[in-house]
Amino acid sequence: LPKLAALGLPLPLGGSSNHFRTATLRKVGGWDPHNVTEDADLGMRLARFGYRSGVIPSSTYKEAPADVGRWVGQRTRWFKGWMQTWLVHMRKPYRLFRELGFGGFLAFQLIVGGNALVALVHPIFMLRMIFELLRPGSREDYPSIQFVLYLLIIAAGYLLSAFIGCFGLARRGMLKKVGVLTLTPLHWLLLSIAAWWAAVELIYAPFRWKKTEHGLDKAARQKSTTRSLLDLERLLSDLKRRGELATRDSASSRRRLLRVAA
Q1: Which residue stretches of the chain have pLDDT < 50?
Q2: What is the pTM of this model?
Q3: Residues 6+ apart with CB under 8 A from 28
Q4: Which of 65, 151, 188, 193 sits most deeply, having the most CB atoms within 10 A of its CB?
Q5: What torsion, rounded to 10 degrees, do the Cα atoms 67, 73, 76, 80 define?
Q6: What separation in angstroms does the CA of 179 have from each of 99, 174, 190?
């Protein structure tokens, strides 16, 4: 998201820690009550209306899904929402291209449509690679060109995904957990299950909102709340030092902000 913002490209907004000017939010139509990832849709509409979204350099601490079932359910809703967003905005492709420009249009296709498409195609790719490996006569010219091609493409996808994960762990000082990235193929398989489930729901239950259950880890939540408050305090102090925060009654304003955040 920071890189997209720096390039002036549309942002598929996340579901937490968004801040809007109320007048702007109303001008673009607010949230779509029928889209199950209404934040991603709103991010695209803001871009189409000529607005740019920025990223605040702070952290949002949110409890992750507690088990695989809840995680797949969450990803299913995300994929369904991205599919909805892609279908809605692609009703008039030329108009979308004109409003977003070439770079914005390409970013929309890769991030919103591409995420869902890759997850849908992945198991088909895997099955095709296995077929090429096991098909009769394959041992005569083994490895076949098709098998090598599929293997290279899948390996490149896994490695890129693992590299991004490793980079994120490094930035968070959590490289000791890098071993979890060996599960990248399983992660992709679960994403594919979620994407196909989302495609089915898009037809039979397009507006079903499967809420992710949170609040299961109270200790982690208290720790993350404390950390968030400390980050907020540092951010406010930095803004004040740069003269970007109103100084009138700043102490009482800060206390109010901290109470709201708590």
Answers
A1: none
A2: 0.78
A3: 42, 45, 46, 49, 51
A4: 188
A5: -150
A6: 43, 11, 18
